[in-house]
Design brief:
With 352 residues, this protein is α+β, with helices and mostly antiparallel strands. The chain folds into two domains: 212 residues, Endonuclease III, domain 1 (Orthogonal Bundle); 124 residues, Nucleoside Triphosphate Pyrophosphohydrolase (Alpha-Beta Complex), CATH 3.90.79.10. 41% of the residues lie in helices and 14% in strands. β1 and β2 form a beta hairpin. It is globular. Bound molecules: iron/sulfur cluster (SF4).
């Protein structure tokens, strides 16, 4: 039997029963695969059905407001995925008559569709012999093919992908990919791989050579860059001030507590320039903050060292105006209604 036949037989017996695998459509595959990017199945399960209940078709998703989409994404993190999924839905409805394209280049050009999601869509939704390569598959590939170079190098990733592509069957390519996904999550585990239960151990070169635990090899990731951040927690009459920037890079498009990064070589001029990008500080200057808190938060590429200025502004209740930026006074007891990144939820918990 070929490796593909063995794997498919195992998948028929042991594959996970997941809601997006029951009566799948190209839309349900798109939503689930984008939700599963860098997120565990267990975290996606409770939110997937809620999301699909509210946005049962690509047309409904495209017609929804971005705020509502983000609200239904709460709990999954990486909100840029939700924004891009929403944009992709709008493009598919406007330019492709609501049908998700199955041409590789067109699909790959849609917002939020990277190599992995494109491979998953083509194989699972459209039955094409493609491979969806992610960290799990790279790990399996490094072991299966005895790849002793770092798997986070593009060249090595391409090498593993090419080797898998030689194995993908023309019949049931989607199930082949999903079988590999299940193998990565239940059998070929990072720390304690269960080789004795592995259906493809007879094909696994690392298993034969006793090199399983030494693989995969990875280059050490770069540590997050430390950044000083000034953050403003402003209350007035039972509401808190939030902003949303349409442009501006990091965290754009999200509701956030107003913040600015402080240049590391701090000087009065540099601070002033930084604060001019943040209208708030001069407006608040006449008041004394209620409290000042210190907090740290680590993103994947940034390590924020935050100073949080907590103001209670009793004598003014204004909504600032700024180009491409929305401001919102949200009642404290209704903060859950807006999609807020975790860093700001934690900052809000500093309030007494
Ligand atoms: S034999 Fe072990 S290392 Fe090889 S694919 Fe199976 S679980 Fe992974």
């Amino acid at each position: 039997m070929t490796l593909a036949q063995i794997l498919l037989e195992w998948y028929d017996l042991r594959g996970r029963d997941l809601p997006w695998r029951r009566n799948p459509t190209s839309y349900s595959t798109l939503v689930s695969e984008i939700m599963l990017q860098q997120t565990r199945v267990e975290a996606v399960l409770p939110l997937y059905e809620r999301f699909m209940g509210r946005f049962p078709s690509i047309q409904v998703l495209a017609a929804a407001s971005q705020d509502e989409v983000l609200t239904y994404w709460q709990g999954l993190g990486y909100y840029s995925r939700a924004r891009r999924l929403h944009q992709a839905a709008q493009i598919i409805v406007a330019e492709h008559d609501g049908s998700i394209p199955h041409n590789k280049e067109t699909l790959r050009s849609l917002p939020g569709i990277g190599d992995y999601t494109c491979g998953a869509m083509l194989s699972i939704a459209f039955g094409k012999p493609e491979i969806a390569i992610d960290g799990n598959l790279l790990r399996i590939g490094a072991r299966l093919f005895l790849i002793q170079d770092p798997i986070n190098r593009m060249k090595i990733k391409a090498q593993i992908q090419a080797k898998f592509k030689e194995l993908v069957p023309t019949e049931r390519p989607g199930d082949f990919n999903q079988a590999l996904m299940d193998l990565g999550s239940a059998i070929c585990l990072p720390k304690n791989p269960r080789c004795e239960e592995c259906p493809i151990s007879h094909h696994c070169q690392a298993y034969f050579k006793g090199a399983v635990l030494a693989l995969p090899i990875k280059d050490a990731p770069k540590p997050p860059v430390p950044v000083q951040v000034r953050l403003y927690l402003v209350e007035s009459q039972g509401a808190i001030l939030f902003r949303k920037r349409e442009f501006g890079g990091f965290l754009q498009g999200m509701w956030e507590l107003p913040w600015c990064e402080i240049p590391s070589q701090i000087s009065r001029t540099a601070l002033k320039v930084a604060e001019e990008h943040n209208w708030l500080s001069p407006k608040l200057e006449p008041c004394d903050p209620l409290e000042i808190y210190e907090m740290e938060y680590v993103f994947s590429h940034r390590h924020w060292f935050m100073t949080i200025f907590h103001y209670n502004v009793t004598d003014q209740f204004y909504t600032p105006k700024e180009k491409d930026t929305l401001y919102l006074w949200q009642p404290i007891d209704a903060i859950d209604e807006i999609a807020l990144p975790t860093v700001f939820k934690k900052a809000l918990k500093m309030r007494p």
